[in-house]
Write a structure and sequence with these properties.
mainly alpha; 3 strands; disordered C terminus; single chain; 59% helix; Arc Repressor Mutant, subunit A; 8 helices; 3-stranded antiparallel sheet
């Protein structure tokens, strides 16, 4: 297997998502929906956060967090209340149905996480997690919503099409 960290990280991500999908197969939840439920659970989550804070914790754009919240509200898993300090903001928490779902699913999620780290010794598991945390903290500017998206080229955004764009690119280089 290639030793490129980007290629390895992509394969690791695919593996993690596949194992998590298997663990969530008995629910109608996607991985991101489960992440919302996990963040809002009462035991070790952060019930009562607002939608912007949720988006930041998930690493998604606010509009995407809004869609996730809307879906989970429709399914009766979370509720929104007006924030007393800022009437424009909504605080989020799990409903009793959401709490029950979290309690039911979390054992299979834990087992999935154990399966991912299974090839490592207990000491290596802790080291691996510590190293991931350190790399994420050091490169956090790149772990924001939309980072890594391809920029639209001038050819795609030009109203007169690719031919005139090529000409202007050549002109910019000092040739015609």
């Amino acid at each position: 297997m290639r030793r490129s960290q980007t290629a390895l990280a992509r394969r690791f991500y695919q593996m993690c998502m596949g194992i998590q999908a298997e663990a969530l197969a008995t629910t109608d939840l996607t991985a991101l929906q489960f992440a919302v439920v996990a963040i809002l659970n009462r035991q070790n989550g952060e019930p009562g956060i607002d939608q912007n804070s949720l988006a930041a914790r998930l690493g998604v754009e606010r509009s995407h967090a809004s869609l996730l919240v809307e879906e989970l509200v429709t399914n009766g898993l979370i509720e929104q209340r007006v924030n007393g300090a800022d009437r424009r903001a909504r605080v989020l928490s799990l409903t009793p149905k959401g709490e029950k779902l979290y309690e039911r699913v979390v054992p299979s999620i834990r087992a999935a996480n154990e399966r991912v780290l299974g090839p490592l010794s207990p000491h290596e598991r802790e080291l691996f997690k510590d190293m991931l945390i350190r790399m994420i903290a050091a490169n956090g500017a790149y772990a924001r919503p939309g980072a890594g998206r391809r920029k639209r080229s001038s050819r795609e955004s030009s109203p007169s099409g690719p031919t005139s764009s090529r000409k202007s690119i050549n002109t910019d280089r000092g040739t015609s």
